[in-house]
C-alpha cells in the first residue's frame, strides 16, 4: 500500500452510490434486501437503497478493524445482533464502504449464505488484496481511503482536547 491517500468527497460519494446502484440495476440483479455492514456500510447502503427503491435494510454490526492497519484476530458480530431470518430465501445485496482485506465481507457473506437464495456484494472501493471479490465496485485502489464521514476525529475527542 502506498502512503498516498484516496480522498472521497461528499459529492463524489453521492455519484459513487448512484453509479453502484446503476451497475446493480443494469446487471439485472433485483435485490429484495440490502445487508449493510456497520459502520462503514451504513451510508452507502442507505444511499443505494434509495437509488434502487429498496426499503428493506438489515444492519450487521461487525467489529474487525481496531485502528489503522490493526485488526482483531477475526471479524465478529457485536450487539445488537439482528434476527437474520428476515433474509430467508431472499436476494441479498451486501453493501460496505471498502473491501480491504475482504475478511469482514467474507464473514458477512458466510452469515448470509445460511439464509439467502442469492447474494451479491457492492462496495465503494476494492483493494487488490481482498479475499472476496465484489460483483459491484465503484473504484479499485491500493491507497488508504479518507471517507467524508470518518475524516475528522470523533466530536468527544475534539472537545476533550479543547478543555
Automatic annotation (TrEMBL):
Keyword presence, Lipid biosynthesis: no
GO MF entries: glycosyltransferase activity
SUPFAM superfamilies in the cross-refs: PRTase-like (SSF53271)
Domain Phosphoribosyltransferase: 6-150
Keyword Glycosyltransferase applies: yes
Swiss-Prot/TrEMBL keywords: Glycosyltransferase, Transferase
InterPro entries recorded: PRTase-like (IPR029057), PRTase_dom (IPR000836)
UniProt xrefs under CDD domains: PRTases_typeI (cd06223)
Designated name of the protein: Phosphoribosyltransferase
Origin species: Peptidiphaga gingivicola
Amino acid at each position: 500500500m502506498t502512503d498516498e491517500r484516496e480522498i472521497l468527497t461528499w459529492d463524489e460519494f453521492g455519484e459513487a452510490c448512484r453509479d453502484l446502484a446503476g451497475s446493480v440495476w443494469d446487471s439485472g440483479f433485483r435485490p429484495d434486501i440490502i445487508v449493510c455492514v456497520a459502520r462503514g456500510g451504513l451510508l452507502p447502503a442507505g444511499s443505494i437503497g434509495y437509488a434502487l427503491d429498496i426499503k428493506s435494510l438489515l444492519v450487521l454490526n461487525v467489529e474487525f478493524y481496531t485502528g489503522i492497519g490493526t485488526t482483531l484476530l477475526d471479524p465478529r458480530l457485536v450487539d445488537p445482533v439482528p434476527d437474520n431470518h428476515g433474509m430467508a430465501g431472499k436476494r441479498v445485496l451486501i453493501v460496505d464502504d471498502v473491501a480491504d482485506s475482504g475478511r469482514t465481507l467474507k464473514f458477512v457473506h458466510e452469515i448470509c449464505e445460511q439464509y439467502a437464495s442469492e447474494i451479491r456484494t457492492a462496495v465503494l472501493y476494492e483493494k487488490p488484496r481482498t479475499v472476496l471479490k465484489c460483483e459491484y465496485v465503484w473504484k479499485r485502489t491500493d491507497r488508504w481511503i479518507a471517507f467524508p464521514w470518518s475524516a475528522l476525529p470523533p466530536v468527544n475527542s475534539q472537545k476533550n482536547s479543547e478543555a
